Amino acid sequence: MVEDMHLIELENCTKEFDGFEALKQVSLYIRKQEFVTLLGPSGCGKTTTLRLIGGFEQPTTGRVFFEGTDITGVPPYRRSVNTVFQKYALFPHLDVFENIAFGLKIAKVQKADIKRRVAEMLELVGLRGYEKRDIEALSGGQQQRVAIARALVNEPEVLLLDEPLGALDQRLRKDMQLELKKMQQRLGITFLYVTHDQEEALTMSDTIVVMREGRIQQIGTPKKIYDEPKNAFVADFIGESNILPGVMLYDRRVRFADFEFTCEDSGFGTNAPVDVVVRPEDIVVYPDRGMLKGIVRSVLFKGVHYEMMVDTGAFTFKVHSTMMQPEGAEIGLSILPDGIHIMRKSEPVKDPQEEGEAL
């Protein structure tokens, strides 16, 4: 059970590099025992945010708190956090045991305790019996596990993970996503994870922080962010979306693609210009009926569904369905009220924590 207290807090943090503002007034808090993912494209500020928390960078303005104490100027080695980097940074001249034990030896932990704690970590990451293996003889996935064990053996309150699965192949990456989530739940510590991979974030996270150009766009659970994106960037970045202009006629009634639909949104006024988001999987395909009529322009088999581009004349919809319709076929499309999400046009990005959606 996640404890409802602030473990880490960033207060109005900015960060400049040679005049470039990488972070812009970022305020964020993270609760104990939570798996939080910073998600966004390259250059959005997610790694810079992680490095401020780890103490590897200092904010240009703003402050960083740990359990209510200002740690803005505290060096990394005095913070109760450890970091796993994408390149792992293991010592090639040391075996698996020595790599994991390195931090404990620096801290002058007793030999018996080192042996016990390393053994516990090897068991946790599934590498029992690998103590004497050379690092360079391990696979990428095994090296990643050693890096995690080395970070966890010091018993940090927070584990920072900067795209740690980036070097792994897709199959191993998916396996390790599940392993990391299990580890976090078993250990009961806070994980702060950085990735640009939307599926990875949706799979592992308790909370996702979506970032763009140094600002937080939205904070929420994976389901909340997927189902109710705050703006077009979030809708387009998290999963696949059809985003098209519409007019909110009145509460729970919207017009787009030359058709009037019932939706579940309200509070936009009457005849208000809006943006409409419809996920491809929320469009129902009918061979001979539907709210809209369209021509199938292309068909791709995606493994668990077919992806079809369907041209209705007013808009070309991306549709995901297990029922394939051939290219050139005229078909019907229907969209249920809960499959339609309305956003204000050119909605300014607000501080998500002021709207009660914070961590």
Topology:
Blueprint: E1 6-17, E2 20-31, E3 35-39, H1 46-54, E4 61-66, E5 69-70, E6 81-84, H2 96-106, H3 111-124, H4 140-152, E7 158-162, H5 170-187, E8 190-195, H6 198-204, E9 207-212, E10 215-220, H7 222-227, H8 232-237, E11 242-250, E12 253-256, E13 259-262, E14 272-278, E15 283-286, E16 292-301, E17 306-311, E18 316-321, E19 330-335, E20 341-344
Parallel strand pairs: 3-8, 3-9, 6-7, 7-8
Antiparallel strand pairs: 1-2, 1-4, 4-5, 9-10, 11-12, 11-14, 12-13, 14-20, 15-19, 16-17, 16-19, 17-18
Helix pairs in contact: 2-3, 2-4, 3-4
Order of helices and strands: EEEHEEEHHHEHEHEEHHEEEEEEEEEE
Tell me the total number of β-strands.
20
Cα distance spanning the termini: 15 Å
Main beta sheet:
6 strands, mixed
- The percent range for strand residues is 25-35%
Any overview of this molecule?
This protein is of the alpha+beta class and 359 residues long. It folds into 2 domains: 6-227, P-loop containing nucleotide triphosphate hydrolases (Rossmann fold, 3-Layer(aba) Sandwich); 242-344, OB fold (Dihydrolipoamide Acetyltransferase, E2P) (Beta Barrel). It contains 8 helices and 20 strands. A 6-stranded mixed sheet has the order 6-7-8-3-9-10, sandwiched between helices. Strand 1 (6-17) and strand 2 (20-31) form a beta hairpin. Helix 2 (96-106) crosses helix 3 (111-124) and helix 2 (96-106) runs parallel beside helix 4. The longest helix is centred in the middle third of the chain and has 18 residues, at 170-187. It is elongated. Residues 347-359 have low confidence and may be disordered.
